[in-house]
Amino acid sequence: GGALKFAQIALRNLARNRRRSALSLLLIAAGSVAILLTAGFIRYSFGGLREAIVRGGLGHLEVAPARDLEASPLERSGFPSFAEWEKTRAQIETTPHVLAAEGAIRLTGLVSKGDRTVAAMGLGIEPERERKMGFEVKLRAGSYLPDKAPAEGEDTVVLGLGLARALRAQPGEVVTLTALTADSTLNAYDMTVVGLVTTGLQDLDARFFKAHLASAQRLLGTDSVSSLLVALDDTARTQQVAALVRSQLAAGQPGLAVADWESRASFYGQVKALYSGIFWFLGGIVFVLVCLATSNTLLMTVLERVREIGTL
Length: 312
Known about the structure:
The protein is α+β, with helices and mostly antiparallel strands. Helix content is about 50%, strand content about 25%. Helix 2 runs antiparallel to helix 11 (about 265-305). The longest helix has about 40 residues, at about 20-60. The chain is elongated.
């Protein structure tokens, strides 16, 4: 009975100061909405950035020789050493939720046109499988690499915007790619520029190019690849599928390792930490302001009715 009586008194007090009660409720509602909207926006931004990174060519998983994948970037072998990659790819593509996997070669060398030469880094990829994997290509001029492996002497390449600008190269023109082969000799191939692309990062565009995997293998004189990139139908299943792939490889090819996209995308972790810090800082300010405004209203109510409360 006593608790009910005090509840009735509290409700009467709210009704007695309607404007003040409405203002307090409005402050609490506005603060809650601000926090929820900010959290939703940041969550949406994380999701968009995550998919952009994965679909931009990183893939959900990377499978490579353990000595390369687990080493620091400076300690990694610069030459492709993944030999039986086609057999491994066929095995991985039988795993549930895997869309496709492609062989990729990391390339470093020189790109030349006329009297201009630029140090560059690029990728040898399989365009047909990239499309199956849902990778996005930000084409700015010309066309993308053809699906079919080019014949020798008909090799093609796409250049980053900054690299093309430095070389003064346009689609249809020929550039020369020079790189070290397995026996540490220089090899050069003339390739026709078919398109210009952007990665979204200006510094990377100034050094980036892509060629067909077959062209990259001919340039380096190898049948191996640097790694396999794997794309899934759902990013949320990355850890689940990674565990399945690791168990499959452990049974047949123990020398291989699997890395997920988040461990290879340091940029994503840095952006996520920055946004999370901003959110908690702003959320803390909003929370403190709401608490102070509500406390001020309650304090005014109590001080106005000290005698009444004492009588009760």
